[in-house]
Description:
By secondary structure, this protein is α/β, with parallel strands linked by helices. It is 31% helix and 20% strand. The protein has two domains: 2-201 and 337-372, Rossmann fold (3-Layer(aba) Sandwich), CATH 3.40.50.150; 207-332, no CATH class. The protein has helices at residues 2-6, 20-30, 80-93, 116-127, 175-182, 186-189, 222-230, 234-246, 307-313, 326-334, 339-360; strands at residues 11-17, 35-37, 54-57, 100-105, 131-138, 148-155, 250-261, 264-272, 291-296, 299-304, 368-372. Strands 2-1-11-3-4-6-5 form a seven-stranded mixed beta sheet, with helices on both faces. The radius of gyration is 22 Å and the shape is globular. The N and C termini lie close together (12 Å).
Amino acid sequence: MARLGLGDAWRCLFANDFDPMKAAAYRSNFGNDHLREGDVWKLSAADLPGSADLAWASSPCQDFSLAGTRAGLNGGRSSAFFGFWRLMEELSREGRAPRVVVIENVVGLLTSHGGADFITLCRCLAELGYMFGVLELDAARFLPQSRPRIFVIATRAPPKSDLLAIEPVRPFHSRRVVTAANSLPKDLRKLWLWWKLSFPPSANETIRENLDDENDVSWFPQEKTDHILSLLAESHLEKLDRARQLGGEQIATVFRRMRKEDGKKVQRAELRFDGTAGCIRTPRGGSSRQLILSVNETGVRVRHLSPTEGARLMGLGPEYKLPPKKTAALRVIGDGVVVPVVRFLADNILERLVLEDSTENDEQPDRHLAYAR
């Protein structure tokens, strides 16, 4: 999805994924000439051709996520970052370090282990001669899905002043981004960049415009619907009642979460009628699958969010080939990055960094992408 967001002006030199299912999805959409399936730790710089303008890393987020174990950069899954960075170090020794590096992850990266993991990440960038800054973007500014993510953008060449802000700018530099920046040691703080972004136009679609045709969906039987409704807390039952009184069909998204009540953990279903889906996650366990609820004067219906609906909420077009099995398709979607968010970053920062650096060095602006996951 990072590749789709970058668009046709970029050429992919190399892609890597450890997951066979995700690698198969990549092949079905982009071919196999530059994809290496397998553990990033088993790769060397010799496997990466040429000199890339950009290296993009989206390492597994579970060890940074608030919903995960918070194991940090040394966690079993997120250690993929260090495998990726080892390749960047090898490329640097060969004089082939990418001009720009983007590291995308959940916002929990900023606070993992009290901020120590983020400092380690910045230290890695600094040791290879990169300056860096962080942007926090929520996909809800582009399409109807709430999906906050951070993007660490690092460059080896000093950016022109029109790419930089003098001070933090909300919402891209959220309170947690500012706190993380101010918590860096002095030597790293000197390398910090406040990236400047224009404000994207407000998303003009709601979840309703992204739903499948009624003839293509299957609603839960009444017994299962009643079970979901039994998980609603009083405040959400009141939401449901107000929606029913509005008349006509009202659409909500539903997510099941564990909440503490009276000292005990209980599962609750939570509704949002604001036209925006919650963050789409991978279907690890049935409760992580997001639901669609429809209510009108005659009753309530509930069903799963479908893979095609999830794909739309990630900015994927109908031409994108999803895995045929629902669980596999939802895994691809839930671990992805939102396409229009990447496009926004490419337009505002990435392409300008690469083109400016190419012009200064009298090179042709032949842009490439090296991607590790």
